[in-house]
Amino acid sequence: MTQTLTREQVTNAEPGTDLNVMVAEHIFGWRRISGPTHDYDGVVEHGEVLVPPEMSEAHAYAMMPPRGSVQISYFINRNWSEDIYRAWMVIKQVEKEWAWEMKMYNVACEVYVRIGRKDYSSENVSEAICKAALLAVLDI
After folding, report:
1. Model confidence over 123-140: pLDDT tens digits?
2. Looking at residue 53, what is its pLDDT?
3. CA 42 from chain center: how many Å?
4. Are 5 and 134 in contact (CB under 8 A)?
5. Of 15, 32, 78, 92, which has the most beta carbons under 10 Å away?
């Protein structure tokens, strides 16, 4: 089940795992499945795990480690919020639906990204792209 996010949750998220989880789920359509409840040693703490849209639950379970709990970000191997090359994948995904623009302000050392009617500014280009995309997709 997709989690509802507020504007504050998006804008306050630090680049890294939390922001990448938001991008995977809301920009690229990754879905949540229940993580394993047991391992070889017995019951484990479990929660949800994000999987790519094309991955079956059976395949996901087969790829999870045999011991310990599995973090929600286990399958996320793309660092959209910190790697500019990966952030361009976000632009490519959202430009199918929205126009976008980017302005760099050298004096302020900031980048301004506008996607659709939503915008975000940051010193981190990847962060600005991810957050502007999330704000546009979620319309918050």
Report:
1. 999 999 999 999 999 999
2. 95
3. 31
4. yes
5. 15
Beta bridge partners of 8: none
Q: Which of 135, 35, 38, 17 is nearest to 81 (CA)?
A: 17
Neighbours of 60 (CB within 10 A): 20
Closest CA to 70 of 82, 56, 60, 80: 60
Distance CA 85, CA 104 (A): 17
Global pTM exceeds 0.85: yes
Q: Are 20 and 73 in contact (CB under 8 A)?
A: yes
Tell me the per-residue pLDDT of 35-76, one tens digit each, with 9 for 90 and over.
888 777 778 777 899 999 999 999 998 898 877 778 899 999
- Amino acid identity, position 129: I
Task: Give me the amino acid identity at 55.
Answer: M
Could you tell me the maximum CA-CA distance found in the chain, to the nearest angstrom?
57
Tell me how crowded residue 17 is: count the other CB atoms within 10 A of its CB.
Answer: 15
Enter the tokens of residue 64.
């999870």
Which position has the token pair 């981190």? 124
Q: How many whole angstroms separate alpha carbon 50 and alpha carbon 140?
A: 22
Mention every residue, 6+ apart, whose C-beta is less than 8 A from residue 83. Answer: 126
